[in-house]
Structures are given as structure tokens and as C-alpha cells.
């Protein structure tokens, strides 16, 4: 594979995007020609998201504005279908710890079964983000914890407001 060759998708719920996600997106954008960040809008999921798909998309667009080869799109079909629509050759995701492995292993096998031509590629999280998750950040913010160095500032502000309004 030639470096900076082709398009890849970085999918996720991003509810909300964290500095860990942004680290993976930034590092991926340095390797591939184009990165399409796919924000899942999954209406059949039982848990309601804190932010709408449009809000989640806007946070990522704002945080990646300096990265010329990154685009942020919402999708609500199968991930492999979305990847095909984007003419992506691979799905790129971050891997934090062994605890992520089982879920990602299952997803990668399912996605491979659906479309073997789309490769799943994993980028290992930077050590200082290996503990960071959207769920953890939401829990901290719910109880008034300081999340300002874990998420972009507009996200921290919006989370405080949204959780305060509940
Ligand atoms: O861990 P996340 O961020 O909730 O992951 C979301 C996503 C879409 C990357 C993950 O669920 C996945 O890999 N799904 C593959 C199966 C699929 O296509 N589901 C439909 C999504 S609408």
C-alpha cells in the first residue's frame, strides 16, 4: 500500500467525541489520503444519545477544521455499505485495551463477512488516552467532574449545559 493512498472511514457513535477519538482521527489523517468520519445515527439502539447526530457531527467538524483531508458524515445504514458509498478501502478504529478487543474482533469478523473487500484496521490509542471513553466522560460530567482536558472545550460546555438541563 502506497502511503497516503485512498479513502478510509473512521466510524463511531461519538457521543460525544473525546480527545482520544481526535487523536485517532488525526493520526489516521496523516497516513491516508482522505478520512471520512462516520457518525452513527442508529434509531434502533435502545439507549438514547446525549447529543443528536447533527450535534455530534458539528463537534467533530469544529475540532477537525484544520485537517484538510477529513470530512464528517452521518450514516444510518450498515457500516460496510457506508464505507462502500464513500469508496473507502478500509474501516479504521482505535483500540485502547484488551477490553476493546473482544467487541472489535466480533465487529471486524461481522464486517468482513458482509464485505471481505473492506479491511478493518486498528490504531492503538496513545497511552495518555487509553483510559478515555465517551461513557466515562459523560459519567464524570454528570457528577460535576472536570472534563475540560478530555474533550474539546465546546463539547465540555455543551455537556455541562445538557446534563444540567436534565
Ligand atoms: O462503539 P461504537 O462507537 O458505538 O461503534 C459504532 C460502529 C458503527 C462503529 C459499530 O457498531 C460497528 O462497527 N458496527 C458494525 C455493524 C453495523 O454496520 N451496524 C449498523 C450501524 S447503523
Number of strands: 5
Helix content: 40-55%
CATH fold-level assignment = Rossmann fold
pLDDT under 50 segments (min length 5)? Answer: none
The molecules bound to the chains, other than polymers, are:
4'-phosphopantetheine
What's the CATH H-level superfamily name? Answer: HUPs
The SS-based structural class is alpha/beta
- Spatial order of strands in the largest sheet: 3-2-1-4-5
Tell me what the structure shows.
The protein is α/β, with parallel strands linked by helices and 166 residues long. It has one domain (7-164): HUPs (Rossmann fold). It contains six helices and five strands; from the N terminus they run βαβαβαβαβαα. Strands 3-2-1-4-5 form a five-stranded parallel sheet, with helices on both faces. The termini are far apart. Bound molecules: 4'-phosphopantetheine. 4'-phosphopantetheine is lined by residues 11-13, 40, 42, 76, 78-79, 107, 110-111. 4'-phosphopantetheine (PNS) is lined by residues 11-13, 40, 42, 76, 78-79, 107, 110-111.
Task: Give the secondary structure arrangement, pairings included.
Layout: E1 7-12, H1 19-31, E2 34-40, H2 53-63, E3 70-75, H3 79-85, E4 88-95, H4 98-114, E5 119-124, H5 134-142, H6 153-165
Parallel strand pairs: 1-2, 1-4, 2-3, 4-5
